[in-house]
Amino acid sequence: MASPQSTTASSLTSTDNPESPSSMIAISTDDINIHDKNDQSKKFKFFPHIFSCCGHQQLIYLKRLNSLDIIYAIGSFIAVLGCAWQLIDVSRIYFAYDTNVNVMFERETKVEIPAITICMDLFKVANDEYIEENYSNQLKHFAENKVNKYSAYKKLFQNLTLYELLNNATYSSEKVFNKCRIIKPIAIENNETDDYINCTFISPIHESLTDVKKCFSIGLQLNNQSDDYFYIDHDMTIRDNGFPLYQISLFNKYIESPMILMHSRSIPFLGFIGGQTNVFRVNNTRSSFQLFNYFKTINDLLEPPFKTDCRRYEEIGYKSLMHCMNRCKSNFFIRNFNGQHGDVPTDNSFDLNMYFAPSKFKENKTLDKIMSNECLTTCSKRQECHSEFYTMSMMDDFERKPMQNRYEFDVYFSSTANTHYKHQPRMELVEFICFYASTISLWFGFSIIAFSRSVLHIIHQNALAKRNSSVSTTKNDKSVTILPGRRYSQTVEMSYHISKAALEIDLKKPETEQRVQEKK
């Protein structure tokens, strides 16, 4: 006969009457133990599911390893080392922040107008009428005036303020230029019938000076003008490039061996001190008309943390590194020598109520080193992120004929493709992530689908465990409060679980005993 299964439960009953039935609150200790065991058996195990993503779940459940398991474990360890080596190596490549340089040869489909600066001797462009009217008495005291008036002008200009030199004592662009024309840009292409317009329609001619030169810059975009005023609808890959971009004519009497420089329209003329040394000096006494061509080089760098370490100087109010250095050196001279640096091109944006500092200071290399090191705190050594360089070449030269009082030159479209140096990361972030993921998958068979399944399973199992825990706590963890002045009785409740076979045997037992007695 099968043995019956039984459980016992003790209960505390609160009653005010000792004779009243005692059945109010029951605490089942066995039920608590049973639920605890069920919760422990259902508790989610994290590591087996993580190992199952990579095919190593058998290592968790094995109680004793055989030879194949040992070989498998050694192979897994080697896989971990190989994966770590590859990940470290690719991390070293990525976090070195090296760059690759892509060299591209590009032909412009829309031609960008470059800026042109023409510099001439400061004393040659002196306003004779104004000087004679206002400074004739001072000139008489100069011995140089009897030999060479330009030598006298040089001595006079040392005693004139920058404002007087820039705006009164020298001729303006209206006096020096005979004409300045440029191909009409996109902004007015449909509004003008003529193919060429005056240069000042795009931007005013920008005037600046040093202690020996006066310069005129054409085509600068220093303010917030629309880019459409500085682009020409001309596809250089299919169009005829035999049209001049610029047509410029100067009166010969005001110039002597002028210097012509082409540079980016977004950066003002910085002079030799600003690194703009790629100039073309012309002999206007021999030539009356010249044709020029140019080609452009573009350089794009990357900001930190990449090794090119470029800087956007627009964020601190400058156009480029050398624009910042020019301003810093100018301020250094003003603070220490009460005058402007003689090599810094000075325009109306500067304080012009001062003089040029003596030239001996600008020629002192030791002083220039001290000054440059001081300016590093403001400007640093970092190159600008985008820079453009132009190189001019002469196509043709026409000798001067008698009675020709002008010097003219035309600048034609570039006949060669632009050279574009573009720095790009040696390894992009998306490449770095993909390499990491593919390396882990290569060594361990890891997949996003398996990992997602494990994560969802973790969330699901944790939710089930919390729900079961809350249900068992509500059902079994009931507290009993013992109040003073009351009587409590304890009863034991018995419950039996009897199998069907045992029940049938117990029911047949009385009949069997009765038959035995009758036979006797």
From TrEMBL:
It is a multi-pass membrane protein. It is found in: Membrane. Its main location: membrane. Residues 1-22 are annotated as: Disordered. Keywords: Ion channel, Ion transport, Membrane, Sodium, Sodium channel, Sodium transport, Transmembrane, Transmembrane helix, Transport. InterPro entries: ENaC. GO terms for molecular function: ligand-gated sodium channel activity. GO terms for cellular component: plasma membrane. The chain crosses the membrane at residues 70-88, 429-451. It comes from the Eukaryota. Belongs to the amiloride-sensitive sodium channel (TC 1.A.6) family. This is Uncharacterized protein LOC113793653. It comes from Dermatophagoides pteronyssinus (European house dust mite). The lineage of its organism: Eukaryota, Metazoa, Ecdysozoa, Arthropoda, Chelicerata.
